[in-house]
Amino acid sequence: xxxxxxxxxxxxxxxxxxxxxxxxxxxxxxxxxxxxxxxxxxxxxxxxxxxxxxxxxxxxxxxxxxxxxxxxxxxxxxxxxxxxxxxxxxxxxxxxxxxxxxxxxxxxxxxxxxxxxxxxxxxxxxxxxxxxxxxxxxxxxxxxxxxxxxxxxxxxxxxxxxxxxxxxxxxxxxxxxxxxxxxxxxxxxxxxxxxxxxxxxxxxxxxxxxxxxxxxxxxxxxxxxxxxxxxxxxxxxxxxxxxxxxxxxxxxxxxxxxxxxxxxxxxxxxxxxxxxxxxxxxxxxxxxxxxxxxxxxxxxxxxxxxxxxxxxxxxxxxxxxxxxxxxxxxxxxxxxxxxxxxxxxxxxxxxxxxxxxxxxxxxxxxxxxxxxxxxxx
Length: 377
Prior knowledge:
By secondary structure, the protein is an alpha/beta fold. 26% of the residues lie in helices and 28% in strands.
């Protein structure tokens, strides 16, 4: 951070946790002109609510920097809460975090910082890295990466958050700073303690702020969706039991199904039209291919032909080899201005491939792009 070549005015996105706190402290120590910026996303408890606002304000006071709070509750309700409720109601397992990063956090923070404070760059506590387009070295990619900022994994493989950042556009990537991308979580804790930050020992927040806010994801969904009794069936339609809402099940789930069979069963499909949970033995729960839409190409331009990639179909899943073949855009793709679509053929059958979740494509540590799983191919 001390050798940064450009302007050193930055707005730091502060959640009130140790990661964003250390981000601000490191930039202050490196001589940057820092201002704290917190998005107020929900009322009540949790890192995105009053508790987070108080801790973020305390860190800014401790560091001697200004703190700003932007009321983003209406945007968060529309872009995330309503989106989640609609998806779960229709039998999809939505991924809110990448959508929140694109639609609620990064671009809106940049717009506010520039318009209100004349600051053209933001920093956050994400464990990821950005290699600028004009960097002296760039990673080899299976396609054209000329003139593009590269999004890279964080060095801490256990905390790497690049999966949730795949949907950020180039215009945003070029204005980001991720000081923790080169650190491990242990090093972050140790450095925060060394600097005496008030959040150094603060417990980790849950991955999904809505679950933290409501107590659990089930409690959040129950607050928005009434019970809707339906059937739990085998792939051939054999009825095994009842359920009280598709939203309480996820693709790949084995425990808590509430039905008995002569071998373990997993959820393989959530049928929104029929309000059915479809289950099958694990051998029938894998997929050899899937279709991915709403793709955002990050470190390389959209390919014109099939390429070999590594792909993660869940945040915590292991990267697996796959052949990515571009597909023509549908009318819905063009209407949504998300025209890139592809088929993924996995080298090995994959378990728990869920519509609504993200498939993120990698070449080593570089994020090539990613999109939303839409259907079996």
